[in-house]
Structures are given as C-alpha cells and as structure tokens.
Design a protein that fits this description.
Layout: H1 3-6, H2 19-31, E1 38-42, H3 49-59, E2 62-68, H4 75-87, H5 90-94, E3 100-106, H6 119-129, E4 134-138, H7 147-151, E5 153-157, H8 163-177, E6 180-181, H9 183-193, H10 197-208, E7 213-214, H11 216-220, H12 231-240, H13 244-252, H14 258-272, H15 276-299, H16 305-319, H17 334-341, H18 343-360, H19 364-381, H20 384-394, H21 398-404, H22 423-428
Parallel strand pairs: 1-4, 1-5, 2-3, 3-4, 6-7
Helix pairs in contact: 4-6, 8-9, 9-10, 12-13, 12-14, 12-16, 13-16, 14-15, 15-16, 18-19
Length: 429
C-alpha cells in the first residue's frame, strides 16, 4: 500500500503545515450557510489541499462527494455527478448520521481547454445554486480565464511546506513504520521534495524498500527528480525569486518550450515590474536574450542558446530590486491568442495569393504584398459585373470574394478545398 494513502491525515490537525490556511478553511466550513460562497483552495501540488478537505469532512461528519474536474470536463458530466448532490442533499441525512453533503471539485484549473463543453460555466452555475458547501482545489489560479471563478469563491492560499515541518512528519512516519533514519537523511528528502509532502513520502517509501536503516548517503544515491513546472510556477520563480539561480533552474524544468516561455516573460514583464528602473533592466535582459536567440537561428551555433536562456531567466530575475506581489500571470501570450483567432483569415489570404500567383506568374509572397491590396480596392469599388468576372477568372469562391469586398474580414473557419467558385452569380449574392 502506498504510504501517502496509508498515512493520509485523518483529522485536520494531522495535515502538515499551512496552519493559517487550515484555520481559514475550517472556519468557512463551520460558518457556511446556503447562499454562501464556495471555498477555493489553491497552491502547489502535494501541500495538503485535498487531504484537508477529506479530513475536515470526516471530522465534521459530512458525506463527501468528490470528482476531479480536470477529468470530467463537460457540463453534462459535472452536473450529473455533483449537480444532483448539490440540490437534493437532504436525502443523505435520512439514511445516515451525516451532517449533510460536502462536494469537492478537485483540480479545477484543468477544466478549460478546447475539449471543455461548458464545464467552467457548469461549475459557476453549480456554485450559484448549491444548497450544500462546495470546496474546490487548484494548483494555480493566476490564469485570467479563471477570474470569474475566483470572484465566486473564498480563495485560500496554500504554501509549500517548510522543511522543518516536513522533517517532523517524516520522523512520525518512520516511527509508525519501525524505520530508523538519520535526521540528515530526512532533511535531504525534505529539501529534495521542494515543499511537496506527497513526493517526500514517496521517496521515503522507495528508500525504505531497500534498507531499514536510512542514512544520508542512501538519499544522495537517488536520481534527481524529473519534475516539470507549470508556466505559472516558472514565471513566479523568474519574477519573484530572491536567487536568480532558482529562476534558471525553473526555466530548465518548464513544461512549455523555450519560445513560448520567452513570449510569456515578454507578455508579463510590464505587469510584474512596476518600478521604471526595474522594468528597464528587465527589458535590457530580454533584449540580450533576443539577440542570442537570433544568432542561434542565423548561425545554427547552439552553444549560444545557454546565454539566451540565462538572460531570459536569470537576467530578468536579477533586474528586480524592489518587492512585488504577483499580479496574475497572463498565459497564453496575447500574440498566440491573436494568431489563433486570425488563423482562418491567414489561410484564406494564402489561398487567394496562390490563385493570383498562378494567373500572374508570381510567387505567393509577392502576390500577397503587391497584388492583393489593389485587388481589394478593385473588388470594393468596381461594378458587380466586373468583380464577378475577375472572381471567375481567378477561380475565387464566395468566402474569398466576401473577404476582398471587406464583408468578411474575419471568416469563422478556414476555406475548404474544392469549393465551387463564386463566379458571376456568387458575386451578386
């Protein structure tokens, strides 16, 4: 049996660390009344958010109904699982000594995405109509798309568990398991976990399977944890750390590629550094990173890449002199969002330029730059018959004609291949 389950806290007092957050949550649960806000517990993974909800439900005699929101994304699944419990909770009290129902929606920061069919909206509706307390957990809530959800909840922040507290908990597990361990060995495990209780307990169990007398040298033999950090965690290290080396390490462990992280640092810098001198120094570091990235692409000298990454992470982190509080990280960058919204339009321009190129014997790039602007003027100011004749000659379909006339500057979908040309009749329509 996994020790993280075997030694899962049974009472709120056994949850390791985050005393202030625990008191805030327990106070919310005790005072909650229908119509009250839900509680949103947020912080790094493995710090006891879900464990606290489980322990508090057990201590307060609540029936816990749990679902992982990142797995059940659609509105239908969310309402089928949690919606009935939120509106018909009284039935549980007839068959047990329960105080009622407590709903837990785990990992709600994983709810959004292309596959989500109204999931976030369903959660907001659930919170508004629920007759029972609802607790939600998330690793990171800085994404702007979660703003409405944050406003609908009482937010309770969890921090990484401090090493002394972590060591005390590991000592207690060793006592329960009859495992002898040097204090220095437990300190190394705690440091290696970076405040994640779950990973620390997993490491302790892995080591205990090899020896019942744990020494520091045994811990040192463990391979470094291959942990990927979310872009919000990486941005937090870059903008808020007191040690630029931490920013460099976080950049190396980012779950996104370096180009997307580079854009994200550019996007968030003016919102995080409010002092003009800090902001200028941060942009200086990013400009040097841009120079190195450019040289890598031009010369294929990948030895220069490390300089670019250091300027992007350590350089920006070292630029900060004052103390700031996080202003909420914007991700994905606006440039990515704009490219996504204009993809259909760009595809349509490519199609029109290719047809111009065939007829006028020029490249697609030259057609877009030199021919397309004049073609738009001709379509928008010529008579219908002339425009229809030109469209027929180029073989343009209705979507292309509408774009050239200025009637569909942002088409809803990319043009399909093999559509029927607009011709004279299509142009009149």
């Amino acid at each position: 049996m996994m020790w993280v389950e075997k030694h899962r806290p049974q009472t709120p007092e056994e949850v390791v660390g985050n005393e202030e957050a625990k008191l805030k949550f327990l106070s919310w649960l005790k005072k909650w009344k229908p119509g009250g806000k839900a509680a949103l517990l947020h912080g790094p993974p493995g710090v006891g958010k879900t464990a606290l909800v489980h322990a508090a439900a057990k201590a307060a005699a609540y029936d816990l109904i749990e679902m992982n929101a990142s797995d059940a994304r659609t509105a239908e699944k969310i309402m089928r699982t949690a919606g009935h419990a939120a509106s018909e909770s009284s039935i549980f009290q007839f068959f047990s000594d329960s105080k009622g129902v407590l709903i837990l929606l785990d990992e709600v920061d994983g709810i959004y995405g292309r596959e989500d069919q109204g999931g976030l909206g369903a959660i907001l509706k659930l919170l508004e109509e629920s007759k029972v307390p609802v607790a939600l957990t998330a690793n990171d809530i800085s994404d702007m798309r979660l703003r409405e959800l944050k406003n609908a909840c009482l937010t309770i922040r969890f921090q990484k568990v401090r090493p002394p507290v972590m060591v005390a908990w590991l000592e207690e597990i060793c006592r329960r398991e009859g495992l002898e361990a040097e204090e220095e060995a437990l300190k190394l495990i705690a440091a290696r976990s970076r405040g994640d209780v779950r990973s620390a307990v997993n490491d302790l169990q892995a080591l205990a399977e090899k020896t019942r007398s744990l020494r520091a040298v045994d811990v040192e033999k463990l391979t470094a944890r291959d942990r990927q950090l979310s872009v919000q965690e990486v941005l937090g290290e870059i903008f808020l750390t007191n040690n630029p080396l931490y920013a460099k390490r976080a950049q190396a462990e980012a779950e996104v590629d370096r180009d997307l992280l580079h854009l994200s640092v550019h996007e968030n810098l003016p919102y995080q550094f409010t002092d003009p001198e800090d902001l200028a120094a941060g942009y200086d570091a990013l400009s040097r990173a841009d120079v190195f990235f450019g040289r890598v692409k031009r010369t294929q000298n990948w030895g220069l890449l490390s300089y670019a990454l250091e300027q992007m992470s350590m350089g920006v982190a070292a630029a900060r002199r004052g103390k700031y509080t996080p202003a909420g990280y914007r991700f994905p960058p606006s440039r990515i969002l704009i490219l996504g919204r204009t993809k259909a339009q760009r595809e349509l321009i490519k199609e029109i330029s290719a047809k111009i190129g065939v007829k006028c014997h020029v490249s697609r790039r030259r057609a877009a730059a030199d021919f397309l602007p004049y073609l738009r003027v001709m379509f928008q100011h010529s008579k219908e018959a002339a425009a229809a004749q030109l469209a027929s000659w180029l073989g343009l379909d209705e979507a292309a004609v509408a774009y050239l006339k200025g009637e569909a500057a942002k088409p809803s979908s990319a043009p399909a291949r093999g559509r029927k040309p607009a011709g004279r009749r299509g142009a009149r329509r």
